[in-house]
Design a protein that fits this description.
By secondary structure, this protein is mainly β. The chain is built from one helix and 16 strands. The protein has one domain: Porin (Beta Barrel). A hairpin with a 5-residue loop joins strand 8 and strand 9. The N terminus is likely disordered.
């Protein structure tokens, strides 16, 4: 049996949370090329993640001809393990999304509820269509997400997450608050182009390491490479690289 440390468990959970926050950032009345800051009529793009020069995961994003995200495929190494399909109403508002396993069987159904074009709640149903989880979301007057709550199937709050922003609406702090007083916090720093250049990671308010970012773009203006270097106590402890490949409609 593989034992996971408390810190490792928090990190694994945070990755799931950050993925969810990505979807939240796009689950408004628009979820298209503009919202995702893509240039050109992108049909599909691949996001390939490397850790210390070894490929560890890949995501493939698919768009329809009018630019709306319709499917995301998740791979571990080269093996598909999850697909997410997005649903829209006749006004192109995302009404929810469905997760499928590698065999095409439904794992979860996500039902979205909006108020004033802002996502305020997601209900997640399991493969038997039973309520398993509810996410609730609050915003500031600028429309930035500032609080996310996770409620279990017994209608009990389990964890909550807080966000802070600068005057340009850039996310500058994201904190996760778990049972028994445990917490994890990220602080973000940007350059004059509003590109993320540094991330500081804290566990229970103790700084653990710093991540530095750099970017490369193609001639269309889409990002093609992100480099990340993790530093602890002044020494490099790991590096990550994300490559992006784009395919366009004619």
């Amino acid at each position: 049996m593989v034992k996971v440390s408390r810190q490792g468990a928090i990190m694994k959970r945070s990755i799931i949370i950050l993925l969810l926050l990505f979807f939240i950032s796009t689950l408004f009345s628009i979820q298209n090329w503009d919202k995702l800051k893509l240039k050109g009529k992108v049909k599909q793009f691949e996001e390939i993640n490397f850790n210390n020069d070894k490929m560890i995961s890949k995501k493939i994003y698919n768009f329809n001809k009018i630019g709306f995200l319709i499917k995301v495929e998740y791979y571990s190494d080269d093996s598909l393990f999850l697909s997410t399909v997005y649903k829209y109403d006749d006004k192109n508002i995302n009404t929810g999304y469905i997760d499928y396993d590698e065999e095409g069987k439904i794992l979860r159904t996500h039902l979205c509820e909006y108020k004033n074009d802002r996502l305020i709640q997601i209900k997640i149903l399991d493969s038997n269509e039973q309520l398993n989880y509810t996410g609730k979301y609050e915003y500031d007057i600028k429309g930035n997400l500032v609080r996310m709550e996770e409620w279990n199937k017994n209608n009990e709050i389990e964890t909550y997450h807080l966000s802070k922003y600068d005057e340009k609406n850039n996310l500058i702090e994201l904190s996760h608050h778990f049972p028994a007083g445990r917490s994890q916090k990220f602080q973000y720093f940007y350059n004059d182009k509003n590109e993320l250049i540094k991330e500081e990671t804290f566990y229970n308010d103790i700084k653990e390491f710093v991540t530095l970012f750099s970017y490369e773009y193609n001639e269309t203006g889409n990002i093609i490479k992100t480099k990340k270097i993790n530093i602890k106590d002044g020494a490099e402890i790991g590096k990550e690289e994300v490559l992006y490949k784009y395919f366009y409609y004619n």
